[in-house]
């Protein structure tokens, strides 16, 4: 805009400028009316001086856009911004709405708009037609205005609602206005609800009556399978009894069910709508109507919900007090499980069977005991409930209460002198429920009790580390201290071990062959050493545990600790004078097992303590160096060599198998390098005449083969059947090794005792790639011979 035009244009945003009809009349000569001006007149209607209706009228006469969109809806997407008529309706501005409609505002602009944005988890709010919006605002004047203008009273909102649906949240006047204008009382929204479905939730009896007078259908079922009566009955806090009365008078079926078989009685029982229940029962609602699959009755629902007054109404009405659902639960069972003492008392007074068990054998007493409902347990016991009835797993009320630590329930059950106190004691000990244990012991339960597997209560408590329970059992005379000591030691419970040693448990007791908790001859110290439980081991040693006892296989505590790599325990045992070397070859050595498992730190400690590097047990078949090389433990091999281990010692019955041989056999190239550096012989052979090169070639260990070849091993040495390493590599299809051997000048012409060369073997086996490699090498050899002949 040039400066001259700018000077001529009125500045409507200036606070000193007052927009008047006269100026509006002349402003048309300079520019069109903006949408903002139209919006501002309505937005500032109450704040404007003069008559804002005149301003709006003139703006619209001057060409203002009657369908302009709210300019201040800056956060909305373009296609969700409503027109100004929407805002005028929300403000309840009848005058503005009338003017806008007079100038041709669209009455249905909102129907095509998207759902308004909403918070996560909320249902979207659809805008709908002008009449729908007005009815939602509960503005009777606006509704009448739009109806008089000719708005379609049955225009459908995107979610299926009509103005009548939303009008049901208002008063009877608005509803009658819509009905008089021809609103369809039977129209259903997206959820299948008619206006009646909405009215029973939102309005008073007058609105409901108006809809019924307009022939509203009380039996229409929505998409949830609910009739109007069912919707009314499901209102939290209860619907007006008068609404129920008019629905019933209009023919609503009191026996109606939803797709799951829930009746109005079920729903109202769960919600505690007492007056609704009275009305429904008086109207003949069926008291024993069960849901289709679960078989739940209204009495069951009321009992679960703890609705005592409703339960009494049902009982007075003749409901079956002992009726069961599909899993065999009675109302008494359900109330007992939920801890509803008042309901339980009422059911018992109505002669409910106190011992009726559900399908899995659980009685009401079991359910109450399991859930810790002491008051209910006392009521059931007073009604002579059988305290010894087990469920299908064999657990009684006392056992389940003991398992769950419900001490008050346990004390109540003990007054009935139950039969299974010992089992309950074991269960309580396992869970560590000290107060329950004390209650059972005070009731003269045998402290020496054992469970179904033969484990004593003391052993179970020790195994789980419940030291206070252990002390209580010991004080009550429990005697199975040795087995308990082993269990506590194996699981690392140092405080329990200390308590048992203070009770003079035999720390050197060894498990016999029939024990379920340990191998034959294993002591508590061995178990602690194997588990790495250093505090337990220290406690046992302080209690003078014999550090050199052996189990049935000749293994000591030192062996177990070394086997698992527990170096701190190894040191502790050695300080306690543990023998580092076995007395004969029948017993395994700690150094051997540590070398086998790769526990370098343990190996160092054992060597410092004088472990014999040359010791060979019958089971191991070799010394520590042999075992370490076999496992590929390079650093341990180095340490053992530094400790003067014999690098060329032969084992496996003296047939030539050495540490170097097994390293080659298992593909440990780094170990091989260390052994070669220590002058290990490459010429050793096994009982078949296999050299290290033979076995490495057969097994496909390319890196080992390369190390041996680099060390100048005899590439053409033969085993007992005359095969070279090349023969074996060709037979076992080790292509890369064949190539490496040929590059090391392996003789392809060597024949084995069967007269076969490596090439012939490869050919017979169909190894074409190896055949090609060997044949290529032969041609090279022939060329070299020809060149020498020519010279």
UniProtKB/TrEMBL annotation:
Keywords: ANK repeat, Repeat. InterPro entries: Ankyrin_rpt, Ankyrin_rpt-contain_sf, Dendritic_Spine_Reg/Scaffold. Pfam families: Ank (PF00023), Ank_2 (PF12796). It comes from the Eukaryota. The keyword Repeat applies. The keyword DNA-binding does not apply. ANK repeats lie at residues 129-158, 191-223, 260-292, 294-326, 327-359, 360-392, 420-452, 453-478, 480-512, 520-552, 553-585, 586-618, 620-652, 655-687, 688-720, 721-753. This is Uncharacterized protein.
